[in-house]
Amino acid sequence: MPDFQPTFRLAIVGAGPVGLSLALHASRALPHAHVSLFDSRSLAQDVSGDPRTLALSLGSVQLLQRLGAWQADAAQPILAVHVSQQAPSLGGVLADVMGEPEVRISAAEEKVPLLGAVLSYGAIVAPLQATWLAACEREPSRLCTRFGTPVRALKPLANGVEIDSGIVDPFDLAVVAEGGVFTTEVPSTLAQPARPPLRRDYAQNAWVGTVQLANPRAGVAYERFTRHGPAALLPLKEGRAALVWCVNRDDDPVAELDDTQRLAVLNTLFHLEVGPLTAVSPLKRFDLGLIAERTLTQGRTVRIGNAAQTLHPVAGQGLNLGLRDAFDLVQALSRSSDVDGVLRKLEWQRGPDRWATIAATDFLARSFTWKLPGAGAARGLGMVALQALKPLKSALARQMMYGSR
Q1: Residue 249, SS3?
Q2: What are the E-state strand segments in 165-264?
Q3: Which of 19, 50, 84, 173 is the most buried (most CB within 10 A)?
Q4: Rounded Cα distance, 174 and 300, in Å
Q5: Which option is the CATH number for 8-50+119-197+293-364: 3.30.1510.10, 3.20.20.140, 3.50.50.60, 2.40.400.10?
Q6: Are residues 179 and 310 in contact, defined by beta-carbon separation less than 8 angstroms?
């Protein structure tokens, strides 16, 4: 059998959920392509035990199922979402008449099996990596794994990009899917764009860990708007929930508390429906902010996922947006051999979904920093209206599940 002769060479930098999903999808949808996946971590490193909790939308779950990399037994389905605002929010007569504002969305109401799912980072990455490695074994001349190989630099070429990983290789297209959390320091990243990214420091901390519920409701996710910022509980197995607790960085009410005190405060924050929280794990702190590249493409280099945008966790959409970036890029490449034309179109094709998600997340995150009188009341009234207007609520649910289509 003659050696495979590629007509298109694709490099992917970053073997997280977005990079691995892109590589797998490209391996199937682009049979003419040679695909190389780079990552600085060693292949011997076991990622399956990484406990970081991630929320996936229904669309993301369906994408991983199509890739044959969905670990259903490790996931906790999200069957309902309950969003509420801590009193006082409306104030005065409005509060007496309307009560505490809340929005309830359910899979049953939307006629879908689930709204999304919660699982650990390891439970997402490990099956994706195993599926990718199996594909590489089947087609070693076409699919290449370069773990333990950090990419030092990307250099634009006339019709491609040169990757320096200790060995210099030319590719027709490089996709950077390597990103991290927001940092207050401006990082030095690969393929710096001509225009600096949109950057906003929310001056908030996120405290992340797990809690134990006395009376858990299986599959219900809770988001609570408090005067300090949003707090969320994502359902896990065995009566546990993943906690994301956002507070002001300059006046952090959590930092000086011990675990017993934190548990006591948490029991005052959430809706009565949540019931008592009986235990809280040690919490980790992260800075919160927005980094959004103004364009996804620069020459023959594309940035997707956290390499293109790092979002506030208030809406839980960062990974879902990155997976849609990956899927749409591969679909566009599968329909045309004109790479430059695909990249030109990619900006406006991804624009509505990308910027709508960024804008909505940014608006919600910044609303907790506003000092305007009545800001909380306005948010509460918006929630009351959303709950009452079922078509609008359903449209929001579809946006959260699938993004803009």
Answers
A1: coil
A2: 168-171, 173-176, 198-213, 220-225, 230-235, 240-248
A3: 19
A4: 6
A5: 3.50.50.60
A6: yes
Q: Which residue has the higher pLDDT, 385 or 135?
A: 135
Number of H helices, E strands in the chain: 10, 21
What's the whole-number mean pLDDT along residues 291-312? 92
- Backbone dihedral region for residue 102 (phi beyond 0: left; psi -120 to 50: alpha; all else: beta): beta
* The CATH number of domain 72-118+200-282+370-402, selected from 3.30.9.10, 3.40.1160.10, 2.40.50.140, 3.10.180.10: 3.30.9.10
pLDDT at 187 over 50: no
Residue 215, pLDDT above cutoff 90: yes
| Token pair listed for 95 | 């509060």
User: What pTM, to 2 d.p., does this model score?
Assistant: 0.90
The answer for residues whose C-beta is within 8 angstroms of residue 327's C-beta and 6 or more apart is: 21, 25, 63
Q: What is the mean pLDDT of residues 147-176?
A: 94
**Mean predicted confidence (pLDDT) in 173-177:** 96
Taking CA atoms, 383 is separated from 90, 92, 171, 311, 386, in Å, by 11, 17, 49, 22, 5
Q: What are the backbone dihedrals phi and psi of residue 55, each rounded to the nearest 5 degrees, phi first?
A: -105, 130
Beta carbons within 10 angstroms of residue 11's beta carbon: 28
Give the up-direction half-sphere exposure of residue 327: CA atoms within 13 A in the CB hemisphere: 19
